[in-house]
Prior knowledge:
Shape: globular
Helix content: 40-55%
Largest sheet: 7 strands, mixed
Strand order of the largest sheet: 1-2-3-7-4-6-5
CATH class of the largest domain: Alpha Beta
Low-confidence stretches: 1-21, 439-445
Number of helices: 33
Amino acid sequence: MRRTLRFSLAVALLLAPAAFSQTLPQGVQKVTSVEGITEYSWPNGLRVLLFPDQSQPKVTVNVTYLVGSRHEGNGEAGMAHLMEHMLFLRTKSGRDVKKEITDRGAQWNGTTSDDRTNYFETVTASDDNLAWALGLEAERMTNMRIEKELLDKEMTVVRNEFEMGDNYPTNVLEERTIGAAYSFHPYGKPTIGSRSDIENVPIDKLDAFYHKFYRPDNAVVMVAGKFDESKALADINAGLGAVPKPQTAIPKTYSVEPPQEGEREVMLRRRGDNQAIFVVYHAPATTHPDLPALEMLSDVLGDAPSGRLYKALVETKKAVNVFANLRWMHDPGMLMAFVMLRPEQNIDEARAITLKTLAGVVEQPPTQEEVDHAKTRFAKQVDLLLANSQQVGLYLSEAMAAGDWRLLFLVRDRVRDVTPQDVARVAKAYLKDTNRTIGEFIPTKTPDTAEIPAALDASVALKDYKGGAAISAGEVFDPTPANIEARTQRSKLPNGMRVDLLPKKTRGGVVLARVQLEFGDEKAVFGREYAARMAATLLARGTKTKTRQQLQEAFDKLKTNWSVSGGPTGTTLALETTEANLPAALRLGAEVLRQPAFDEKEFVELQQQQLSSIEQMRNEPTAIAGIELQRQLTPYPRGDVRYVGTFDERLEDTRNMTLEAARQFYADFYGASNSAFVAVGQFDPAATKQLVAELFGDWKSPKPYTRVPTEYHKVAASDKKFETPDKQNALLELGLTTRMSDMDPEYPAMIIANYIFGGSGGSHLFKRIRDKEGLSYGVGSSFTAPQVDEGATFVAYAISAPQNTPKVEASFKDELAQVLKNGFTADEVAAAKKAWLENESVSRAADGTVSRQIAIDERFGRVFLWRGELDAKVAAVTPEQVNAVFRRHIDPSALVVVKAGDFKKAGAYQ
């Protein structure tokens, strides 16, 4: 389960279509409706939000409990997060929660923050699936087993998650700085908790915590997606609505953080490479009218590349990365700034520049242009996120925790009215030295304290609030491979560019487009990988007519999310925009691809950032083990595009990279003769095809293209151990190579074999190593068979405390031996096939997934019906086939084993 420590809503605003009138169950009342999201209340205190979206063939049930780390008492640090884990285990009636969710092929998770905990599952839309999900949540609310036996098993997993975060000095620095900023309020405690509290929590206190906060009058249920509202209300009424309201009142928190009366300092000394600076200012709660202006202030400071911190530190080569963030919270929260430096950069100088830049917002107030750009970026995210009904409950969880789900809309509206004067006013009010935590405490004769306003009652802030108009709804579209292929229009331009268009009505008129370029061959790109990657990355950093900042602002005005990624044999431009903005966004994207600036300043900044990233990874167990395993499984010579370099080699190649080499690679290979354009969503197909021809039809590739194959190599078994001192988390990876492509008749059976063994939350590895033995937070396996070629790989992994890694390795090898001996059962195969097919269906409900899959299929001359054929083949595999293919391809004696961690200190592998 993922934990959410804190959250900013600046890029997470969602709206919804209008709800229809209902015949309500007895005692249920309609509370309010804003832009299509309708709230109902039950006599037992339960609140329910319905968000119907018929355009998506899936439904999400999200339950938010208004309990987080803010509600924990002394000795309970981490209890809310620990409870999140417990609620995925067993019910008193014998239900295995994770197994049920996995068997349904659901996408699911749970998260914990300072103010709330939430649980969600997304399933294929059907009355049966919705009734199941709501029934499961009803039982999870009141009927979970909070027992020592289960706690002891899960405890190691939670502790492992704690250790995983503790591996990264920047995580620890954030927690320590925030902890120093708060003297009394529980926001000073990290949500993950403290090791002592996690390890020693009494089971009776945990059980009491469950019954104290997990109750209908402390929960908000949201159902979003394609569903029958009357049936949903009836299902809720029969389950969650029937849970009795406890007689005792919900405990309320009452701690108030007093004004800070002077600078505070934290100094963290531990192993690591990159230096960092973290600055915290106290700020108002979400309900306060100053919050929208503070949100704009954080953007003015922290945006890349237009933000003041970026210009003052990154552009001047004093640091490699910066950000600023405002956290939206129930009680007064915080505004933060972060600066990352490479080892040779001067942290004292960077700190002085950081503080001067922050103070400079008061001395030199934001311009109208800066604020307009911030508001444009904010509005872009609002408009683009309108279409994602699956995410509604997840993002509204934060607004619910802050006081009321409608706060999300209220802040959105208030941002529109923010002026530069408003931003300057809040900067002066809150960016005070005495309100800052960064360095050592310095006494001051006349402290100038910042009075932080108390949190307002949400009902006061929302009095008479109505909201805006609902956005357009999309059509009902069943994303089966047959339907996708029937709707897809395929053509080819004279220069060779393939054009695949899947037009359909979408919520908010959203469309996703991709331009996929392919170039080069194995010999032509030999030794040019870093030039290729630098060239692709520099495309996003300016054109011949626009700087990087101007380019980003242009896309923001078009309400377009965009990205460019690429390497030695191809580059992809991805756009997410609306129907009205697609033509202009596509023209801008063509400018990015065809008229790059290759600016010297941007090249130097990017090179420094890449060096910093490599240096940061070289002492991390996960990076060390992962890279070493790939080096063993792909034995190519250095210079080959398939070669996996060491950290030293990566640093050497990055330092030796020149801008001229990147420019030359672009000139030698970029063109559209071997390319594809894919669009999925709401757009005019004829006009779009004509525009694509205009923008790319005359762009020919300077050299021929031949696909670089993924070859099979027989790799000898080996066992390597790497020491990473002072790292509290370790990674074990095991892998092997085998001959198979996704065209192989055995491939469908291998999909299911891996799914059962380690490829899902209900797999053998997950149930044994995580659930039963409690040794690992994350454990699993993957099987990758390339298209057409035969270079398939099987990889298994587990993160754990270093002292537990030998046990994890022994359990993996024993479980593999047991499976090879006894095989998978018929019931396991049947359940895995059903879950895998359901998961595929849910994934294809996302237009982004469909566009990527169409682009991949184009590369190999396939149409989408191929995926339907694969589904049918998976559905038809037998237990005998699954067991036979697993035994044939997974040989324990051929395993390459790599582990990285502080084993010496832990006394492991002696």
